[in-house]
Description:
By secondary structure, the protein is mostly helical. It has helices at residues 3-35, 37-43, 52-75, 82-107, 112-131. The chain is built from 5 helices and no strands. The longest helix is centred in the N-terminal third of the chain and has 33 residues, at 3-35. The radius of gyration is 17 Å and the shape is globular.
Amino acid sequence: xxxxxxxxxxxxxxxxxxxxxxxxxxxxxxxxxxxxxxxxxxxxxxxxxxxxxxxxxxxxxxxxxxxxxxxxxxxxxxxxxxxxxxxxxxxxxxxxxxxxxxxxxxxxxxxxxxxxxxxxxxxxxxxxxxxxxxx
Length: 135
């Protein structure tokens, strides 16, 4: 194996790891929001009423996250989807971080678990963005 081939294999393994972790996180969050929205929000210290409209909105956002997570996860295993998956992960995670920063500035601190979530989202978003760099 040439040095270039070995480097490409290491890069492909790193991309697969980033997309697998990024995709699984989005799938788990989306799935929990879709299937058990009250439990998921309360696990993060967010109290929501069990009204149909709010639950519908939470489930809809969960389904969207679940779908994006599947695309990101597929990119780890289907080479032709790798760049698309990395872009979806980068856009999704970094947009979420931006929204959290706006919330922090406008609404104040959301608390420890959501600040930790923002740090994880930033790390995963930057990792996905890194996969988009030219080789």
